Amino acid sequence: AMRSSICSILLFFSAFTPVSTLLGQSEGFSDLAQKIPDDANLIIAVNAKSLFQSPLGREEGWREDYADAFEASPLVLPPSTNMAILGAELDIEALAPRWEAVALMLDQATPVDKIAKRVDGFVDTLAGYNSVWTRKRNCIVEMSPRSFASYGPVSRQDAGRWITKLPHQHSPFLREAIRTIEANGVQIRMARSEEHTSELQSR
Question: Residue 130 CB: number of other CB atoms within 10 A?
Fold first, then answer.
């Protein structure tokens, strides 16, 4: 559900009060974005490491707050996330996603069997990659020991197509939004369809 995944992350991070101009340069978002299916019309980039390590983030204990929220009700991003791209094909009329995807980089390697236990899923192999399937038909793929991508709800056949089509290419608008993220070092940015963007950190 939208509220339990992408929306939950967006609500949690957008509750943070911006303290100054945006911090640092966020390298690697372009690589992560290429793991999101190419029919996405909504992309959210989160530089979690920059947020958590900001002066206010350390003072207010944002990482600890997020870890507590994750333990209470597992969200789409684990607390060890450094940066992530969240994508979806959003049904504008229903205001609900047809599917959701996440590509993220962690600060440490995480075994797939540990992930499977966490999400109450099972380990599988998909197009040569270690993967985990959840009960809600979400597929989590280990791209490298610290990099993971998930997509769902999806059939095994469509998940295989998603992996074998890597890297994915998005619309010129979304590609430009991602370039802006990397150039400006934004901590949270949302890009939707081909006509609307909002930079949450500059409210």
Answer: 19
Q: Is 199 exposed, middle or buried (0-12, 13-18, 19+ CB in 10 A)?
A: middle
- Which strand ranges, in their side-by-side order, compose the sheet holding 81-91? 122-126, 129-133, 139-144, 147-152, 96-106, 81-91, 42-46, 188-192, 196-198
Per-residue pLDDT tens over the stretch 140-186: 999 999 999 999 999 999 999 999 999 998 888 888 888 887 777 66
For residues 5 and 75, the answer to whether their CB atoms sit within 8 Å is: yes
**Per-residue pLDDT tens digits for 16-66:** 434 333 333 444 888 999 999 999 988 888 888 877 777 777 777 777 777
Cβ atoms of residues 104 and 83 within 8 Å: yes
